[in-house]
């Protein structure tokens, strides 16, 4: 009687057919272990699980290695070493069977269906680019879901450029390295937008989602908010607000500003670059010269100014005024002399008097980074 209560009605006939019953009609669990294993599979395998298996068969070799949850627990030593936590899960340090280190992301409160989850797994596994994180495997057991990625020893870009950090130009992360990181992220985005079989829009480009390998090569990670544009589509007609405050494109907040498209990633990318550049000004004392105070070479100053100008082109309020990411790469790699000053974004506030400028730059002013940096750039151009 107990069995008939817990068994899914659609599976009853299959269970009755199994030769488990003894002469008294009871279940003899000490015999026929193979049949019992089969019975358990039939009993607990619900419709959603079968859907996952079907999707995996359809995608075939595109699906990365699937791990059991018990394997995930073993590779992380029972989740003993936490690397970080975001809105979609907790990341732990792990080691797979071949001895390679891995970053294991345990998804929490995932509301996506099994189909959405597998499609996300397949989408990431289709990518192959030096500036996009590699997916090594995944786990799907009901509500237990995990993604296994290659391990990045230098952590996230956020660890180096977030507010409160002090810029140490003698460290590995000098301005030439930051410039190469900016170009690397752009190349990764260009691949997602144009190089994949399906265009992938990330929608959450920010320092926390840029990981750095042992050589400080950047890798775009965390595709939890990503959307796929099939065929030649470049825009998404309907989409809820997604992204991180401070990096989210304005059209995701105000639909009247323009269509949601790959240009939204361009905006987020350049807000990230501006945060990298703003690190200079958080460490620059009022009235001090950039080159003299921070020991920046003339070549590095040109790189910084180039990053600023390109960034300001990419945060234009109207998406159609922003360059595509491919053009961004051309501008960053091209000559400084060929760059034109961008117009001020519509949401840009009036320029402050020069006497207030350095006070604003080094205070806790609530204005945006682009306002502070553009003012500094305009002032230096007029000197």
From TrEMBL:
Q: What is its EC number?
A: 2.7.11.1
- Do the record's keywords include Transmembrane helix? yes
The transmembrane residues are: none
Regarding the membrane, this protein is recorded as: Single-pass type I membrane protein
Q: Sorted alphabetically, which InterPro entries does this protein's record hold?
A: Kinase-like_dom_sf (IPR011009), LRK10/LRL21-25-like (IPR045874), Prot_kinase_dom (IPR000719), Protein_kinase_ATP_BS (IPR017441), Ser-Thr/Tyr_kinase_cat_dom (IPR001245), Ser/Thr_kinase_AS (IPR008271)
Say which enzyme class the record assigns: transferase
Q: Which domain of life is it from?
A: Eukaryota
Cellular compartments annotated: Membrane
List, for all copies, the residue spans of the domain called Protein kinase: 77-336
Q: Which reaction does it catalyse?
A: L-seryl-[protein] + ATP = O-phospho-L-seryl-[protein] + ADP + H(+); L-threonyl-[protein] + ATP = O-phospho-L-threonyl-[protein] + ADP + H(+)
Instruction: Extract one GO cellular component term from the record.
Output: membrane
Q: Which residues form the signal peptide?
A: none
Molecular function terms, GO-annotated: ATP binding; protein serine/threonine kinase activity
Query: Which positions does UniProt annotate for ATP binding?
Result: 105
Keyword annotations for this protein, in alphabetical order, are: ATP-binding, Glycoprotein, Kinase, Membrane, Nucleotide-binding, Serine/threonine-protein kinase, Signal, Transferase, Transmembrane, Transmembrane helix
Q: Which PANTHER family match?
A: RUST RESISTANCE KINASE LR10-RELATED
Q: Into which family does the record put it?
A: Belongs to the protein kinase superfamily.
Q: What is this protein called?
A: non-specific serine/threonine protein kinase
Lineage, highest ranks first: Eukaryota, Viridiplantae, Streptophyta, Embryophyta, Tracheophyta
